[in-house]
Amino acid sequence: MRWDDFRRSDNIEDRRGLGGGAVGGMGIGTVVVLGLIGWALGIDPRLLIGGAEILTGNRSGYESPAQPGPTGAPSDQLGQFVSAVLGDTEDRWKEIFRQSGGQYREPKLVIFSGLTRSACGRAQSAMGPFYCPNDQRIYLDTAFFRDLEQRFRGCNGKACQFAQAYVISHEVGHHVQNLLGILPKVQEAQQGRDRAQANQLQVRVELQADCFAGVWAYHAQAKWNFIEPGDVEAALQTAAAIGDDRLQRQSQGHVVPDAFTHGSSEQRVRWFTKGLKSGSLSSCNTFQESQV
User: Is residue 25 part of a domain?
Assistant: First the structure.
């Protein structure tokens, strides 16, 4: 992946090395363990951590604010890469929104290590990258990139960069959903439904974000011709590696489709590919597909 031509975004807050400390009487180790358990079982890790906080005595509900980090494009290689990918998503999505008469508002991206705070609750490395619509920020512990290569075996070598760009652009896809009003509608529709039904809606949200990531890559390729041999294969391998079915099979030996929250490996690959080939938002309507 060639990214030298990408504009660097200043919408980065770097909290790496600031430390997260203990949360509600729990150490980071406990938080990470609970996060892994929730991830394996298809349960929001924040629910487990919240329950554990009650048991450890933090009943006040008070959330201390996160220590702010420096803003702007970081100077290290990894920070420059994240800033470059974010910058190009900003440029491409502005163009896409402008074509339909809309205006794209840029999200912020918080880089952290281990633990930090968000307007959606605590952000832990065990939870993986996520988008918080409450503060329109993407939270990324860059250690997840190492996990992609070493733990999930989603990619290897230089080809990992395009897979990492896919991860970032997927979270930007959630921001696009928020701007389009999709996320609020889904959150409203999930109210009052049982967990299996709510999870089915969440899968459609995640697959659409995969498709939107492909849409970004399509337009970036048209602009820069930045994709190198092996890049797409690495991204598809990553999408497959973090499918719910594969993760469940690895962690518990069997698959529970009702607990899916992101989609199967086949679904994630198919929807990213659809966006990458079409470059069209209209091709990403996972909510009208009879079978996603």
Answer: yes
